[in-house]
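ligand=magnesium ion
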Amino acid sequence: MNHQVLAQLLLHLDGRSYKAYQEIRGRYQFPDFELAVDHVQGDPFAAPSRLRVLLPQTVAAFPVQTYQTRSREIALRDYLTRQFSQAAASMHETSDSSYRGSGHSGLIAIAPTGQQVLERTAVFVTSEQVEARFVVGLPARGRQILGRAAATLLCDDLPQIVEQALKYISLDATDLQRHIEMVEDADWLRQQLPAKGLVAFIPNGAVLPRHSGISDQPLAIAFDGSAKPQPEILTELQTETSPIVAIPFQSPATLQIEFDRPNQGSIKGMGIPTGITLIVGGGYHGKSTLLRAIALGIYNHIPSDGREQVVSHPTATKIRAEDGRSVTGVDISPFISHLPQGRSTKHFSTENASGSTSQASNVMEALEAGATVLLIDEDTSATNFMIRDRRMQALIAKAQEPITPLIDKIRQLYQDCGISTVLVMGGSGDYFDVANTILAMTDYRPQAVTAQAKAIAAQYATARIPEGGTQFGTLTPRVPLALSLGSHGSPAKLKVRAVNELILGTEIVDLAAIEQLVEAGQVRAIGAAIAYLERHYLNGTTPLSTILTHIESDIATAGIDILTPYPQGDLVRFRALDLAAAFNRLRSLSVKKPETFSNVKPTSTKR
Ligand code: ADP
Ligand code: MG
């Protein structure tokens, strides 16, 4: 149908009850694009209506080089999502206020974005077309349709947004090129890490600290660097007597490495080698900030973020203590054995884990889901999981202590399983003995102090008795059984209010401890993935790690859309590791008892 038909229809609906909006479902041809009205909200306060714009490349005219590689495609899609969002926001500000009626009236919005460049279902680009998925709050006063406002919104405002945001000719080509090249270079850098024996790279000049504990924007910098402070931050700082400014990152000479990036050429910075890396230093000297930047180095960042060329191994996983979490059938025996009351630690379950058992479970689950690099911060760790010093060994016999602390397993973990660890530990020098690389943060600058720390370790021997044995211990795969989600797993029962909370039917899953989730859309996609894996792979015979591989490959082949029954614009790509983390926190999870494993032949059931 023609767009004029839509305008007429909307005018015709003016004053009628909100339900009549259902009549506009369908597809409309505008001069430049096609508009698909996929879902119409039931009332002005309900979740807004879902629409799509399909713009042929003959009109959008993006040069092939802006999307020809996977990196570029994701960068371009991210860029267009941001452009759409900006255009829609400024439209909302400048447009006639008459259609700001009840509820979401007058809203046009696309998936929200932060500092990370992620693959989202908000925008797609192919050689054929550009597709944008967004929501619209169809205008109403009370429950009465504001038809004229709706016609303005869809037939005047929307085409303007499309014009401004989705056509190559309207965009700042230099800015777009920078976005694309930055992302492609970051992907390239990340790919170089294994061959160089590195787990992370932090370039000189990077700005790691954030504006505040509740803002992911960069802290302003004092002089010229790669981070562009936001204007509002600058004004705020100028009013302060002693402005807080970020100290740009600078690698110690011995750990410095240089790369020659495909787009932007030479870059120098600190390479963190595989093995065991210890970050020490006084309180408030930037240790946790560095570790946080490494944890988020699994993602690419927008230019001006300050961390746009900080990269880490894609499976790097932040591990923390998380008392109170539920744990289901995890073999934590490498770290914890002979619990009081003879409770099994080879198949450990609890509704209410302690600091140490939760942290041990988090490690074992991460290994099961494919982590090869662990990131651990003393700030968020259980002390008794981390250390047990000589004096404590003397007072409390090993037989009376279920916990084998990480210090006694961290080397075995690397030697037996190839797992590297980056550890922030300013409070105990016992780790000097087991670390391969030791960094001291002083005034936000890392110094390489490995030799010095090793000399100190020799001079002041701790006389600790190693209690971890020569081997790391067993990794026992788990076979999850059917969930009791049932229809609760259907998309209608899936709610995501924030990045740290997933509601599946009646179950509220607390994701606050999964620190590498950054957008609510990832949590929404993870919720959909749990329902999807329940439908397709939870057969009581397939191990969790195999299930994760299946899901990864399904998404790689068919896209994130495969997780939901109809195309949604609010899903964001997540890692299998973080899906596993959410899955493992379901209180309704049950797994097969390990004794039966040997008899079971894992079979995969394809859809
Ligand atoms: P630590 O873990 O060593 O105690 P944090 O990483 O928590 O220290 O950092 C302490 C404070 O210093 C935080 O407010 C952080 O934002 C700030 N900060 C961290 N790195 C820098 C830097 N490079 N420049 C300026 N401030 C920084
Ligand atoms: Mg800290």
